[in-house]
Specification:
The complex is a heterodimer of chains A (about 400) and B (about 120).
Chain A lengths: L3 H6 L6 H10 L4 H24 L6 H28 L3 H5 L2 H14 L5 H9 L2 H50 L11 E8 L7 E7 L5 E8 L3 H21 L3 H13 L8 E9 L4 E7 L5 E3 L5 E3 L18 E5 L4 E6 L1 H4 L10 H12 L4 H16 L8 E8 L3
Antiparallel strand pairs in A: 1-10, 2-3, 3-4, 4-5, 5-8, 6-7, 6-9, 9-10
Helix pairs in contact in A: 2-4, 3-4, 3-8, 4-6, 6-7, 9-10, 12-13
Chain B lengths: L1 E7 L2 E10 L1 H20 L3 E12 L1 H16 L4 E4 L3 H10 L6 E3 L2 H11 L1
Parallel strand pairs in B: 2-3, 3-4, 4-5
Antiparallel strand pairs in B: 1-2
Helix pairs in contact in B: 1-2
The chains are: A alpha+beta (about 400), B alpha/beta (about 120).
């Protein structure tokens, strides 16, 4: 099979002999390196013999040996010179190049035997210049080795990065999977939640907690920062909050206790904003406390929008001994409660504008009559549409709840 | 995100400008730590002028919190001033305005420093 892609990259097609010559004198494979070493050895040998010849009173057998050695060296150099001419793309350019001339000078004295032998010796000493040429070849080989090494290391890094990405995506999936999939089944409640994690791991979470007295704890929280540290702190926060929720019947006490626990388990000085509400499905009474989180919104059945503001407390994890004021609100039939994280209001579009509270309110009002599921889907869709091509830099987390007593 | 320092009276002033989001937080933390150690060496206070600060994410709040802690530990007067409306809201919501000194403007922050020493 011919491989046109490879053939096309050659400057010009090479005949068999030319390709062979090129592999030996220009390549940097095993054979080329051996050939280089052989030539280097011959250069050293010939320089040594030039020195020996200068010694007067050398025995006749030694002279004969030197002459034979010279014959072999010249033959090898001539052969190499011939190969280089064959391999060169531009033969004339090679012959008249510095190294081409050095190569020629290395063999020329042998063929100029009629001349003064002292002059010939000087010329033969010029063979040392050939070392320069080999040195260049050795340097090139070293550069090639480094390049190959770098490429290998690069590939290794890419593999490691791919593995890390893979592990992070597993961690992200795990992170979302520990959140409750559905709102506790209650005839009076239509609740749903959704978290869309950012490309980097974030620390948003929501939770629905079935309390011993049949009330339901509702959590919306956001850990500061991003990445693995935020994800770990999110897991610690959620676990602590769940545990405290089962021991404390009021949201303020639950947050205060969780805060104290988190302050003792926070080596990276992260913090978490937490809104915690307890809903009594039988009466529609919502009791809540806020640790630095965006106040949730209530769309009343008549179209009025209120926010669950009221004095809050410090974000959790910063300082122990903080108190969290409690507030109470009476839900009315068909009121819609929406809890969210700043991943929604601070979703940016390519023009660097924030989605903002106004768009969120408009979306809630437009879809408040439908199911909680529809409302959540519509809001998330609207945020995605708004952000357009801008990357999602933060988790987007949203909970919607409708209370409808029988 | 850009920072620029200047010296006024017995205070080193770090002007914070731009958006302090997750990606800017690490760089800002370095700047603020450096300013804190200069302030400590020169026995002066450190005031962060947030007049040019347009946005603070939770990662940015964390940098302020860590700086306030270091300042308290090393007895350096530390205050923020001239917060834009949206940034001030973030500080109020998170409760951080209650755990560190946040002044309306530079003059008040400098007066606070004079009152301390």
């Amino acid at each position: 099979m011919s491989t046109p892609e490879i053939a096309a990259t050659e400057s010009q097609p090479r005949s068999g002999l030319r390709a062979l010559a090129a592999t030996l004198v220009e390549g940097d494979g095993k054979y080329a390196r051996r050939f280089d070493n052989f030539i280097l050895f011959l250069i050293a040998l010939s320089l040594l013999s030039v020195g020996l010849e200068a010694i007067s009173g050398l025995p006749a057998w030694a002279r004969t040996a030197l002459w034979i050695e010279e014959l072999i060296v010249v033959a090898a150099f001539a052969f190499e010179y011939f190969l280089r001419i064959v391999a060169a793309d531009n033969k004339l350019a090679f012959i008249f190049s510095f190294y081409g001339i050095v190569d020629l000078l290395a063999i020329a004295p042998f063929f100029l035997s009629g001349m003064d032998t002292r002059f010939l010796r000087v010329l033969r000493v010029l063979r040392i210049l050939r070392v320069l040429k080999l040195q260049r070849r050795v340097l090139e080989a070293a550069v090639n080795d480094r390049t190959r090494e770098l490429a290998e290391r690069n590939a290794e890094l890419e593999r490691a990065q791919a593995q890390l990405r893979e592990e992070l995506s597993v961690a992200r999936a795990l992170q979302s999977s520990i959140l409750p999939a559905a709102f506790p089944a209650r005839a009076e409640c239509d609740g749903t939640a959704r978290m869309t994690p950012a490309t980097t791991m974030g620390g948003d979470f929501y939770d629905f907690i079935e309390l011993p007295d049949a009330r339901i704890g509702i959590v919306m929280a956001d850990v500061s920062g991003k990445g693995v540290p935020a994800a770990f702190f999110m897991a610690v926060s959620r676990t602590s909050l769940r545990e405290q929720a089962s021991h404390h019947s009021t949201p303020g006490a639950c947050l205060a206790q969780t805060n104290d626990v988190l302050c003792g388990q926070n080596p990276l000085d992260l913090f978490v904003t937490v809104f915690y509400a307890i809903l009594d499905p039988a009466t529609g009474v919502l009791c809540y406390a806020n640790g630095g989180h965006n106040p949730p919104l209530i769309a009343r059945a008549d179209g009025a929008i209120e926010s669950l503001d009221g004095e809050g407390g410090l974000v959790l994890g910063v300082m122990p001994g903080v108190s969290y004021p409690e507030h109470t609100m009476q839900l009315r039939p068909d009121d819609r409660l929406v809890l969210y994280t700043d991943g929604i209001t601070e979703a940016f579009n390519p023009a660097n504008e924030a989605y903002g509270l106004e768009r969120l309110v408009a979306e809630i009002l437009a879809h408040r009559a439908g199911s909680s599921h529809t409302l959540v889907e519509r809001i998330c869709g609207s945020v995605t549409h708004f952000a357009g091509t801008a990357p999602q830099s933060d988790d987007i987390t949203l909970t919607a709840l409708k209370w409808n007593p029988r | 995100m850009k920072t620029r320092t200047e010296s006024i009276e017995r205070a080193l002033i770090l002007n914070a400008e731009g958006r302090l989001d997750f990606s800017a937080a690490a760089g800002f933390q370095k700047d603020i730590e450096q300013a804190l150690s200069s302030a400590q060496q020169g026995s002066v206070g450190l005031i962060i002028d947030c007049n040019g600060l347009e946005y603070v994410s939770s990662a940015g709040l964390r940098v302020f919190m860590l700086a306030a802690r270091t300042a308290q530990r090393t007895s350096v007067y530390f205050a923020l001033c001239s917060l834009q409306q949206s940034v001030r809201e973030v500080f109020e919501l998170s409760g951080f305005n209650r755990v560190m000194t946040v002044q309306p403007d530079r003059a008040t922050a400098l007066a606070g420093l004079r009152g301390k020493s």
